[in-house]
């Protein structure tokens, strides 16, 4: 009789288990990463099964996070980059990183349909059979019919869940919570009492102000504040990324939810009384605009959409307990929106602003128009062959086996709401603890070894989402486009392991890196060529006076600018290495050097040139074009289609000729047809 690992216990096989269905690769978790992993593996010629516990594909990318978080877009490559190109096509643009939930979910479905991937919806992991460090098979059951079990046997497994359920049931090492700073010699891990998303001084914690006997307000923990950098088991807060609309023709009013409890939002009233916000956006929540009069709403301030402290048991909880935690978050969030719009104690101008918004009729049709995906910012994290840390984020340690780039700040939301003594008044006040936002570093490589368990623990499992990273490094890596890129790398590695009969820890990393570089779309097509002053300086030459600045909407770490103050003829030439004669669509990235304000190094009254003169050499032919610089700011401008000869005798040159303001040179993209 077979035995299966189930949450550290053993489960004996029963007659309810059917004969195992056999695949090359089994992907567990239909998140954005899961879909891309399955698509990649199928394009590589492998038989693939994608298992998703819910009814939906795409995870958070289809669940409301339409404001894609990524510090530098150039860091995202391969199928992940193509995903945002396809989003752009939907909206009539070359590339777009903001989108409506249903647009993303439909795109993920199209990937599955195109590749012919077998998907088991509403099936959740029950147990794992592992022998001598190799997963032999897994048992799953219907998410709706407990006791209905199926067996799946695969050569390789990829865990793409936000929770790390497959890796946990496979018995590999992992952690939940925050390491102490001392563990990896970090400075931003562990307990951090800082000033971001924080309550102002003077917020009384008691139900009746100044009366401790009345008890604490909802959501405040009595746990003592530990010393800075202390490790613990706490997890950064979850929330829903909210898609609302202010279009009256598509708007469903926000009504009083069934389990409404206004006492949960008393702290918001006290916060408002001190801060006196003029608008709900940035004053109560962060509202990011999405296409078609919709939003991606996120947490902002001391009490907002984050349900601080309510998720600490989620990672290790059973399915029913998780379901209750998710419902608690939904109740809190719906109640929060209703409270802001309807409670008479909220200032009238804020209530009226909230009433402009409602649930969209055309989103989440099977979930009462509310997101089906809780934002699981962090749950379990693998402790694998290599652990990514703050040192990697800040460039003090650079891995050589990088298979993807991360490009976001080290970002942790708050972990707890506690009592802290005000040193000026000696009174206990409410503070949030755990929010960290530290950036200022360029994109950095993510180690392949951080995607795989220790070899002695499991040899046919890859983990691109709950990867091996410290809490604070994970806060930088944990972005949807990065997860997709890591999932593609994991799928390619899995195919290499199968083809070469190797453990995932033994594959040829150089070969993996080369495959990702030369076959980024997994269809054999020629890779596009991106030239940027930071990424490929060897392909860029300058003439005249140019300054490097890091503000504004640059494509990578910086951009080059020339101002009229320089008073010289200046140009930047981008010279691609063309592998073979072909027709290329050429695009110019058009950043805003002012970033919405003044421009460092330039006179205050200087603005971006209305037009920029571009010279393009394609083979023996040189053409000149004037582009209108004020259009498509922080976006790609198509210069046209050109037949480029093989070699380095083609170029795109940005000049300051006839310019009446700041000229910017950042990135040029050559896309083969």
Characterization of this structure:
There is one protein chain. The chain is an alpha+beta fold and 673 residues long. The protein has 3 domains: 238 residues, FAD/NAD(P)-binding domain (3-Layer(bba) Sandwich); 230 residues, no CATH class; 144 residues, Sandwich (Jelly Rolls), CATH 2.60.120.260. The protein is built from 13 helices and 35 strands. Strands 3, 4, 5, 6, 7, 8 and 23 form a 7-stranded mixed sheet that branches. A 5-stranded antiparallel sheet has the order 25-28-33-30-31, with no helix packed on it. Strand 3, helix 1 and strand 4 form a beta-alpha-beta unit. Helix 2 packs across helix 12. The longest helix has 24 residues. The termini are far apart. About 3% of the residues have low confidence.
SS class: alpha+beta
Distance between the termini: 57 Å
Radius of gyration: 26 Å
Q: Total number of helical segments?
A: 13
> What is the number of strand segments?
35
- Overall pLDDT level: 94
| Uncertain ranges | 7-17, 596-605
User: What percent strand?
Assistant: 25-35%
Helix content: 10-25%
| Total individual domains | 3
Task: Based on the coordinates given, report the CATH architecture of the largest domain.
Answer: 3-Layer(bba) Sandwich
CATH topology (fold) name of the largest domain:
FAD/NAD(P)-binding domain
CATH C-level name of the largest domain: Alpha Beta
The CATH superfamily title of the largest domain: FAD/NAD(P)-binding domain
Q: Which outline best applies?
A: globular
Largest sheet: 7 strands, mixed
């Amino acid at each position: 009789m077979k035995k299966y690992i189930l949450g550290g216990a053993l489960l004996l096989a029963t007659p309810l288990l059917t004969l195992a269905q056999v695949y090359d690769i089994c992907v567990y978790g239909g998140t954005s990463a899961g879909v891309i992993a399955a698509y990649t593996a199928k394009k590589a010629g492998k038989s693939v099964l994608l298992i998703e516990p819910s009814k939906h594909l795409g995870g958070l990318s289809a669940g409301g996070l339409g404001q894609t978080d990524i510090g530098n877009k150039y860091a995202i490559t391969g199928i992940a980059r193509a995903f945002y190109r396809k989003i752009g096509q939907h909206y009539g643009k070359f590339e777009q990183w903001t989108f409506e939930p249903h647009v993303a979910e439909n795109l993920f479905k199209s990937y599955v349909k195109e590749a012919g991937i077998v998907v088991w919806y509403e099936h959740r992991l029950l147990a794992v059979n592992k022998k001598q460090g190799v997963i032999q098979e897994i048992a799953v059951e219907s998410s709706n019919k407990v006791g209905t079990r199926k067996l799946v046997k695969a050569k390789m497994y990829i865990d793409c869940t936000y929770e790390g359920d497959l890796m946990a049931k496979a018995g590999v090492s992992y952690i939940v919570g925050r390491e102490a700073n001392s563990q990896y010699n970090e400075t931003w891990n562990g307990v951090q009492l800082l000033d971001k998303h924080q309550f102002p001084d003077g917020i009384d914690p008691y139900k009746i102000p100044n009366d401790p006997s009345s008890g604490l307000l909802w959501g405040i923990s009595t746990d003592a504040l530990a010393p800075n950098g202390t490790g613990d088991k706490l997890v950064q807060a979850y929330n829903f990324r909210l898609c609302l609309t202010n279009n009256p023709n598509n708007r469903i009013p926000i009504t009083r939810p069934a389990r409404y409890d206004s006492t949960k939002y008393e702290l918001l009233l006290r916060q408002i009384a001190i801060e006196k916000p003029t608008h709900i956006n940035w004053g109560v929540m962060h509202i990011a605009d999405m296409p078609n009069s919709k939003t991606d709403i996120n947490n902002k301030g001391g009490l907002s959409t984050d349900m601080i402290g309510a998720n600490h048991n989620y990672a290790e909880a059973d399915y029913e307990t998780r379901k209750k935690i998710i419902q608690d978050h939904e109740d809190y969030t719906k109640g929060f929106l209703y409270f802001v719009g309807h409670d008479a104690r909220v200032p009238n101008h804020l209530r009226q602003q909230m009433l402009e918004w409602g649930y969209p009729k055309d989103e989440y049709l099977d979930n009462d128009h509310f997101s089906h995906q809780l934002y699981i910012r962090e749950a379990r994290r693998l402790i694998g062959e290599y652990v990514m840390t703050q040192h990697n984020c800040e460039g003090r340690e650079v891995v050589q086996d990088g298979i993807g780039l991360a490009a976001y700040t080290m970002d942790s939301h708050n972990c707890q709401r506690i009592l802290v003594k005000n040193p000026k008044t000696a009174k206990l006040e409410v503070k949030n603890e755990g929010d960290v936002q530290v950036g200022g570093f360029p994109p950095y490589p993510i180690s392949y070894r951080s995607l795989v368990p220790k070899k002695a623990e499991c040899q046919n499992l890859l983990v691109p989402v709950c990867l091996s990273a410290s809490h604070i490094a994970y806060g930088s890596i944990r972005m949807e486009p990065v997860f997709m890129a890591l999932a593609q790398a994991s799928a390619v590695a899995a195919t290499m392991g199968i083809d070469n009969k190797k453990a995932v820890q033994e594959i040829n990393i150089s070969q993996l890196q080369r495959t990702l570089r030369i076959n980024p779309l997994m269809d054999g097509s020629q890779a596009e060529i991106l030239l940027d002053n930071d990424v490929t300086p060897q392909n860029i030459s300058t003439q005249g006076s140019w300054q490097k600045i890091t503000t504004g909407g640059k494509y990578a770490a910086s951009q080059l600018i020339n101002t009229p103050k320089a008073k010289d003829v200046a140009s930047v030439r981008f010279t691609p290495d063309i592998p073979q004669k072909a027709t290329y669509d050429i695009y110019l990235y058009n950043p805003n050097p002012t970033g919405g304000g003044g421009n460092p190094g330039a006179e205050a009254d200087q603005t971006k040139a209305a037009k920029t003169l571009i010279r393009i050499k394609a083979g023996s032919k040189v053409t000149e074009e004037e582009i209108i610089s004020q259009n498509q700011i922080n976006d790609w401008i198509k210069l046209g289609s050109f037949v480029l000869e093989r070699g380095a005798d083609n170029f795109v040159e940005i000049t300051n000729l006839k310019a009446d303001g700041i000229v910017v040179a950042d990135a040029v993209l050559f896309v083969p047809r």
